[in-house]
Amino acid sequence: MACLNTLKQEIKTLEKIFPKNHERFQILNSSVDELLCRFIDKNGKRYDIHANITETYPSSPPVWFAESEETSVTNAVQILSNTNGRDNHVINQVGILLRELCRLHNVPLPPDIDNLALPLQTPPPSASPLRLERCAGGGMGGVGGAPGPHGNDETDSDQDEIEDPIGESEQESEGDEDLPLEMDDVRSTNKKDDMEVEHLATLERLRQSQRQDYLKGSVSGSVQATDRLMKELRDIYRSDAFKNNMYSIELVNDSIYEWNIRLKSVDPDSPLHSDLLQLKEKEGKDSILLNILFKETHPFEPPFVRVVHPIISGERECIINCILTLLLIIKYACCLLLGGYVLIGGAICMELLTKQGWSSAYTVEAVIMQIAATLVKGKARIQFGATKALTQGQYSLARAQQSFKSLVQIHEKNGKRLMQYILKLIILLFRILGWFTPPKEDG
């Protein structure tokens, strides 16, 4: 409880020192789980930086990631993953971050930063994470820590402004509107609002592995991508869709950069849903297995997604392939038209998964849900007649990457305008042959 109180006081102090109208550094949003900061350089350019306060806080520092790829920002963020002791506290983390950003951008430190240099009570070595309430500590003074028995007058004055006396519980209630986690709920967090113990263990195992890799100098990926994916994984573990078993996640070889997704739930009125029920009866499997590979440039480049099992086809795929089988560019256009088209090798043809259609704001869960919806919209069906040998030969990573690469090259060379012309021709062909009636909103 002391740890949670300390964290709340630190966040309140940060919001007070760096309001949303501060000229250099702003706290835009905050809770006991996340912090959104903004740094403004001398030219007025804005850099948004996120901090995720994990279940192991303050034994381990928050997980930071920046939306910008600029070296000056990523280097500053990287430093924050190597702190310990008092420097793990969010108020000191912000101070370290701001000093480094000001140094790298050659701007003077704001005078307000001196207010961050207040004593913090560091939990004893045996202390455990915030969420489990095993962090020791008594009353608080100043910002997030207990003062010594003989604090100076200046410090006491600051404490009077920030500290929350027992007699001001009503003010605390009002001030905590932006900090939704109540202290009484901490014990039930893991069971109800947070995540399962096994998922907490997975996150902790990943964090320890990353730290060991860093110490050995064998770091894979980038700090920014790793931090973002750790946040994504934590958010997924806490999401309703995941808890309701709409899909499951397995990290391949405990790598944060490769996920196996088992898509278990699609529109119950769709043929694909019926196929999944039939698949369970025949093979004992009730899901579509997807493999997702993330790059070190994530989230600024899309992941590569492919179907591993079972073999998927679209309702009109055979008609199109019979007519246009040798015309790759037309085949790509059909992919755009039908949506959810699974290419040779298992690659998924969606503009969302290309550089042109991707946005760094997309979450992994949103991508998973979109893939599920697109497969249904594209009339995807499971090919039950395919043998195991055929499945293994047709769906492979190499074939999937090659087919997807070919389509991306066509898209980049010809642009969307040519694709639109081809789409119109195909729609016209379907109308003439009576194979396809487009929705009214499509004309």
TrEMBL record:
Annotated stretches, region: Disordered: 120-196
Listed name of the protein: CG2924
Bias type Acidic residues, positions: 154-183
Native organism: Drosophila busckii (Fruit fly)
SMART domains assigned to the protein according to its UniProt record, in alphabetical order: UBCc (SM00212)
Record carries keyword Transmembrane helix: yes
UniProt-listed CDD domains: UBCc_UBE2Q
Key words of the record: Membrane, Transmembrane, Transmembrane helix
Start-end of Gly residues biased regions: 136-148
SUPFAM superfamilies in UniProt: UBC-like
Compositional bias segments (type: Basic and acidic residues): 184-196
Keyword Nucleotide-binding: no
Residues that span the membrane, as ranges: 323-349, 421-438
Source domain of life: Eukaryota
Boundaries of every UBC core domain copy: 224-417
